[in-house]
From TrEMBL:
The protein's name: HTH cro/C1-type domain-containing protein
Upper taxonomic lineage: Bacteria, Pseudomonadati, Bacteroidota, Cytophagia, Cytophagales
Coiled coil location: 102-129
Highest taxon in the source lineage: Bacteria
Keywords: Coiled coil
Length: 130
């Protein structure tokens, strides 16, 4: 029995989700990180480069509302929910957080359903053999 690991999204995918959620172009995103051209970010998004520590640090400095745990490991919400001014999030960002959490829940439900179906099939096969 082989289960897909749909919950472990690659960091490149999270960076793309972030760019989409911020509603900026790849070039705008790269420039906010101090890059003059977007090539480095494009290469990261297409899997040709792995993001280095300094790039991840630049993202978190340029966008202090981003949850570092989410960016690095995919844990928690995309945007921080704190009272500090640097981490204040807008209603729109809260809605994106909720959409992302719903997406995660749907992915988990689909994975659980798939696992359940596979286990039922195995049980039925064992019943027929025994």
């Amino acid at each position: 029995m082989m289960l897909r690991l749909g919950l472990s999204v690659m960091i490149e995918s999270r960076i793309q989700q972030l760019i989409d959620a911020l509603n900026v172009s790849v070039l705008e995103f790269a420039r906010k990180l101090g890059e003059h051209r977007g090539e480095k970010v494009y290469h990261i998004l297409h899997g040709r480069l792995k993001p280095r520590y300094d790039t991840l640090e630049k993202i978190l400095l340029a966008y202090p509302q981003i949850n570092g745990d989410w960016l690095l490991r995919g844990e928690g919400m995309m945007f921080k929910v704190l009272d500090s001014p640097s981490a204040a999030i807008t209603v729109e960002e809260r809605l994106r957080n909720m959409e992302f959490l719903l997406f995660q829940l749907n992915e988990r439900m689909a994975l659980l359903q798939e696992t359940n179906d596979l286990l039922r099939a195995e049980i039925e096969q064992l019943r027929q053999q025994g």
